[in-house]
Amino acid sequence: MIPLTLAQIARVCGGELRGEPDAVISGEVVVDSRRAGPGGLFAAVAGERADGHDFAAAAVAAGAVAVLATRPVPVPSVLVADIPAALAALARYVVDALPAARIAGITGSVGKTSTKDLAAQLTERLGPTIAPAGSFNNELGHPLTVLRADASTRYLVLELSARGLGHIAYLCGIAPPRYGVVLNVGHAHAGEFGGLDQVARAKGELVEALPADGVAILNADDPRVLAMASRTRARVVTFAVEAHGALVRAADVRLDELGRPGFTLLTPEGSAPVALRLHGAHNVPNALAAAALARELGLSLDGIADGLRAAVARSRWRMEVHQRPDGVTVINDAYNANPESVRAALDALAHLAQGGRGFAVLGHMAELGDTSRPSHEEIGEYAARLCDSGLADSGLAGLIAVGGEAAPLIDGARRVPSWTGEALAVPDGAAALEVLANRLKPADVVLVKASRAASLEGVAAALLGEAGR
Ligand SMILES: Nc1ncnc2c1ncn2[C@@H]1O[C@H](COP(=O)(O)OP(=O)(O)OP(=O)(O)O)[C@@H](O)[C@H]1O
Ligand SMILES: [Mg+2]
Known about the structure:
The chain is α/β, with parallel strands linked by helices. It is built from 17 helices and 22 strands.
């Protein structure tokens, strides 16, 4: 963070100073006391399991200069009424003090983190970049990320999430973006929004927040995203895998044996071959979005193509492909799940399983509201149809639905009479492992995927651990 005195922080946050006014904060602002370090500020947040105020002294002992708190603590502090609001005010103050930092916001229903990680690996070629770790994209994570910026920062590549109308507008107020990328409008959190049109309204708040000299970067393959062109004053730039008129495109998309996409990147400056290190065809639009953004920021075609070729997965549990010594491949995509991302992962499974058998261990997709049961059935059916789709020789050998809420997947799969695989509902991850232990053979591929709440990454870890014994 840019150095600020405690008195300045109290003033910016509208808080009550309880400490040395001239004490300087120059380190990181954190909400996890274990991450508190010299020169930093610890924001005490009351979570479900723990209350940060109980760790105020520990944070200061670890080097934090002071604590941002909502009730008195026995260490130097600034008392505020609301921590997220205080962090938002502080973050806005910091970005206003850093006019040389160019701010890009990325939103969409799926792929924000993947695209943000790709985009940051491109802008790092242009200059010092701040991007969130993982999915720090909400009212807490967003300001905390912004607060990491300092005078050396040239690019802020931010991920913006929404669970309702107004959320993205709020985040844009904290760090006003000049560049806004909208990836897609899908079913993630659609239950909370009340349908896809509402999701589109919410995601479009990003382009509404852009200034006239800003750039809206829109996915021309998604009609709801393209329609956002009419909601912005900014210049509109498009990317697409399919749509021909888009400015940045991909041609000749193909997947290697591990499901990593290769394509020809097409831009107004020319074309370049790209082979991604990431897995799954769904990373092609993500890469195009990152390319379109980097291009606007001034990265050359060669820089973009080199950057995409070199880019690695920075955030965990998204399409991680591991090969066990016994020849079984495990796809750990257990970070989260919604209809779009499960379809993308099943497509990747079908591709990887060519020549072997595919098993899908799927937990439930959360936050789908009224459409939850039919959505699970549709995904079950989609999984069972993979064998008919020509994507795989052998199709899906087993669909294992973990937990009661995922059970409708099985009903969906049974709608496909031509499917000869096994469909099993099991209560938990341990039961899924037991089922797999009796079935897996060399050359088989297992996909593990569910919403965050199901924590199926443990299943993937156990599958990989077993191979080590
Ligand atoms: N363009 C895409 N289309 C479909 N699925 C995708 C796409 N991009 C990523 N995914 C898949 O969606 C899941 C989430 O990816 P990612 O974390 O990048 O999304 P996100 O939008 O940041 O999610 P969150 O809302 O949880 O922050 C992963 O399983 C990933 O493989
Ligand atoms: Mg994310």
